[in-house]
Amino acid sequence: MSDAPINLETLRQRIDELDSDILRLISERAECARRVAEIKTQEDPQAVFYRPEREAQVLRRIMELNPGPLDGEEMARLFREIMSACLALEQPVKVAYLGPEGTFTQQAALKHFGESAVSLPMAAIDEVFREVEAGAVNYGVVPVENSTEGVINHTLDSFMDSGLSICGEVVLRIHHHLLVADTTRRDKVSRIYSHPQSFAQCRKWLDAHYPHAERVPVSSNAEAARLVKTEWHSAAIAGDMAAKLYDLTRIAEKIEDRPDNSTRFLIIGNQDVPMSGEDKTSIVVAMRNQPGALHDLLEPFHRHQIDLTRLETRPSRSGVWNYVFFIDFKGHHDEPRVSAVLEEVRLRAAEVKVLGSFPQGVL
Amino acid sequence: MSDAPINLETLRQRIDELDSDILRLISERAECARRVAEIKTQEDPQAVFYRPEREAQVLRRIMELNPGPLDGEEMARLFREIMSACLALEQPVKVAYLGPEGTFTQQAALKHFGESAVSLPMAAIDEVFREVEAGAVNYGVVPVENSTEGVINHTLDSFMDSGLSICGEVVLRIHHHLLVADTTRRDKVSRIYSHPQSFAQCRKWLDAHYPHAERVPVSSNAEAARLVKTEWHSAAIAGDMAAKLYDLTRIAEKIEDRPDNSTRFLIIGNQDVPMSGEDKTSIVVAMRNQPGALHDLLEPFHRHQIDLTRLETRPSRSGVWNYVFFIDFKGHHDEPRVSAVLEEVRLRAAEVKVLGSFPQGVL
């Protein structure tokens, strides 16, 4: 926009032109997606049109190319919706999630599949698995770890009895800040409002930085933010949304004790997802109970320089072995070095099950 | 796409090209929106950038121009999100709504303002009004009528004590269908599953068409749909989502007793919204209690051929008059024939308050 128009009227006309062009291009994109679907159906009448690895690639590319001024995450969100709408035209993706509606799991499902997907709340994690297994839906969305409850064991356990694989992951990040009104001085804070759960999540930081401030629990972090607006000696612990809404100043950012204060969800399905270029693999390994078993298990990963991103130990439910390990690492099971490691792990373990390779969460 | 590419690879390349173009155009649109904001701020440092009438015009234009294959409503949804993202770049719209999260009111707020708006749940309708009046948020979203509770009197009453105006409306439509599995015959349905609320909403239709079928209440309409999947003599009352999800056949559509089974919400704010071309106006009128008062009140509307879309009577809370009427009609208070009618109404009534003129709900 070097020879940019300069008055409101010209700008609005330019916006109308741009909108017409965007409309035309999105429509052509939908037409292309329709033809892709036609060709795929000719090749295989049962073809699934949703391809997680392709979607991850498109979004990564968009974020790379994005020239601004919109930030990459926002632009990716718009493209997620465009892809979701194009896909729904031919074959709406059906998704079951752990309900009820309005929970973070629904938010994760919408974030991943876009608003055009058909989504339905289930009452329990098993039900989500069951609906996917029965073929009533294409995918399920279940929480796998969150900052308040830690790992959702029930989800991990469900995989042990299930033939489903992991097709993707979604991460919702949650940050807490210490917020004050403009007129408040950092050293004058004598009272802090927040929801009890947020106090728990920021306890260490508060003990270190505001050991003498009175902590007043309130019904929500939004309520906390509202209260400090008129109290010059008070602060609130709350997130970005409340800070923006009440124009509060952040005197400290990201004060949660665990830096990865986030909730992670898994997308489960029947699909073996091809490589996207940046993938993760989840496996579950049963070991015989003997000294050094875990060390033996992890050694091949170290030798092949494969990054472990997570390891959970769970008691086995069978008498044969004592523990099972849920391991997440970077890489796709079709990569030669990953399949080499899996081969070695199979020799050392009582049992190995690959839960799936999937694109690393894009946003 | 007359000289269309024919294989998957070419189609995917074309989609990538289209995505690059869409990305470029959305970015330029955001840049234009930023300049609009700059110019407005120079003219008035307190300027509000969100203009309901402009947004309604853009969406109507998009729906008119939309060539398919995406349907107009879906395309409008995408543009709503694009506009919401562009606006949030400069000045995120702040919205308070009647909570908790996950309710239809939140859905209405997101539908109207897009996902980039900053929105916060409030515990009561008064609180929504208070937050807007205090200037903590730009807009509030409150339900004004729904199919289960009828008119939300509390919302109407709040307007009597408030200086806020109505800046817009959002309608969420809710349809019920009678659904069966493929193998079920219409005349063999001996049992019907549904949520008790849906039974209530379809009672007359059921009495007329399936007087002898057993009605079995279940916890949700989704559950009802799931059950009939395997019962050849059963049907479920449920919505589009459940029909799609379980691939059920609609043996009867829109069986709700009231054809306008929907929930309507109002956007409240401080703004006087200019004409968008298709507008509605809400007024509240206090009449002295005398024979023929209502007829007198309505006569000027009839004479000027102004469409009334709604009329509600509420007992007055003051001793001076006995009733107040909430009237919605088509037109904008800046139109000459509307202001003529308002002039006449003012002569006949004890008091008239224009709650606002606003664009008719687009979707």
UniProtKB/TrEMBL annotation, chains A, B:
<feature type="domain" description="ACT">
    <location>
        <begin position="282"/>
        <end position="359"/>
    </location>
</feature>
<dbReference type="InterPro" id="IPR002912">
    <property type="entry name" value="ACT_dom"/>
</dbReference>
<dbReference type="GO" id="GO:0004106">
    <property type="term" value="F:chorismate mutase activity"/>
</dbReference>
<dbReference type="Pfam" id="PF01842">
    <property type="entry name" value="ACT"/>
</dbReference>
<keyword id="KW-0963">Cytoplasm</keyword>
<dbReference type="InterPro" id="IPR036263">
    <property type="entry name" value="Chorismate_II_sf"/>
</dbReference>
<comment type="pathway">
    <text>Metabolic intermediate biosynthesis; prephenate biosynthesis; prephenate from chorismate: step 1/1.</text>
</comment>
<dbReference type="InterPro" id="IPR008242">
    <property type="entry name" value="Chor_mutase/pphenate_deHydtase"/>
</dbReference>
<dbReference type="InterPro" id="IPR001086">
    <property type="entry name" value="Preph_deHydtase"/>
</dbReference>
<feature type="domain" description="Prephenate dehydratase">
    <location>
        <begin position="94"/>
        <end position="270"/>
    </location>
</feature>
<dbReference type="GO" id="GO:0004664">
    <property type="term" value="F:prephenate dehydratase activity"/>
</dbReference>
<dbReference type="Pfam" id="PF00800">
    <property type="entry name" value="PDT"/>
</dbReference>
<feature type="site" description="Essential for prephenate dehydratase activity">
    <location>
        <position position="263"/>
    </location>
</feature>
<dbReference type="GO" id="GO:0009094">
    <property type="term" value="P:L-phenylalanine biosynthetic process"/>
</dbReference>
<comment type="function">
    <text>Catalyzes the Claisen rearrangement of chorismate to prephenate and the decarboxylation/dehydration of prephenate to phenylpyruvate.</text>
</comment>
<protein>
    <recommendedName>
        <fullName>Bifunctional chorismate mutase/prephenate dehydratase</fullName>
        <ecNumber>4.2.1.51</ecNumber>
        <ecNumber>5.4.99.5</ecNumber>
    </recommendedName>
</protein>
<dbReference type="InterPro" id="IPR036979">
    <property type="entry name" value="CM_dom_sf"/>
</dbReference>
<keyword id="KW-0584">Phenylalanine biosynthesis</keyword>
<comment type="pathway">
    <text>Amino-acid biosynthesis; L-phenylalanine biosynthesis; phenylpyruvate from prephenate: step 1/1.</text>
</comment>
<dbReference type="InterPro" id="IPR045865">
    <property type="entry name" value="ACT-like_dom_sf"/>
</dbReference>
<keyword id="KW-0511">Multifunctional enzyme</keyword>
<keyword id="KW-0057">Aromatic amino acid biosynthesis</keyword>
<keyword id="KW-0456">Lyase</keyword>
<keyword id="KW-0028">Amino-acid biosynthesis</keyword>
<dbReference type="InterPro" id="IPR010957">
    <property type="entry name" value="G/b/e-P-prot_chorismate_mutase"/>
</dbReference>
<dbReference type="GO" id="GO:0005737">
    <property type="term" value="C:cytoplasm"/>
</dbReference>
<dbReference type="InterPro" id="IPR018528">
    <property type="entry name" value="Preph_deHydtase_CS"/>
</dbReference>
<dbReference type="InterPro" id="IPR002701">
    <property type="entry name" value="CM_II_prokaryot"/>
</dbReference>
<feature type="domain" description="Chorismate mutase">
    <location>
        <begin position="2"/>
        <end position="94"/>
    </location>
</feature>
<dbReference type="GO" id="GO:0046417">
    <property type="term" value="P:chorismate metabolic process"/>
</dbReference>
<keyword id="KW-0413">Isomerase</keyword>
<dbReference type="Pfam" id="PF01817">
    <property type="entry name" value="CM_2"/>
</dbReference>
